[in-house]
Amino acid sequence: MTVAPDRRQTRTRAALHAAFRALVLGQGYEALTVGAVADRANVGRSTFYEHYRTMDDLLRESIQGPFTTLADLVDHPQGGDALRDLLLHFRENQQVARVLLGWPTRPVLASALAQLIGDRLRAVPLATPLIPPEVIARQIAEMQLALIEAWIAGRPAMQEAAAVAALSAGTNALVQTLLKR
């Protein structure tokens, strides 16, 4: 039997995420404080800390869903509609994406994505990696983020289908080469 999540906790997390997103757009990540996010979400600082240890933890959770699609390219190299939809989502929300792909959040994003990718790499049967899976995962994550950053900026211009194909092919090539399948 699965236990349904507490509705209050779900509402609080949603409020914290909404506040985080709005404040990131308004003042950037570096200027954010736990107090500002808590105030905007209409909760106390202690409530923030009941859900997250740090602002980086809130950031990691906020990108978990979208980054799962990127990490899934390790297992499903085609990506399909989910990958196309993700790229379109990034383009539609490019203000937030540009803030998050810049400093100081880029290392946090790369680390979170690399962790998701690493989990999938370790599950690959009969693979003999050339280098540690954590390093492979980081290399894939950085490649994916660089391509997404270029896609969002439109410099150089890329067609949607080309960006999807490049993410898929690049991820697959690194997995095939570095895992020696």
UniProtKB/TrEMBL annotation:
Residues 33-52 bind DNA. This is TetR/AcrR family transcriptional regulator. SUPFAM superfamilies: Homeodomain-like. Keywords: DNA-binding, Transcription, Transcription regulation. The keyword Magnesium does not apply. It comes from the Bacteria. Residues 10-70 form the HTH tetR-type domain. It comes from Duganella dendranthematis.
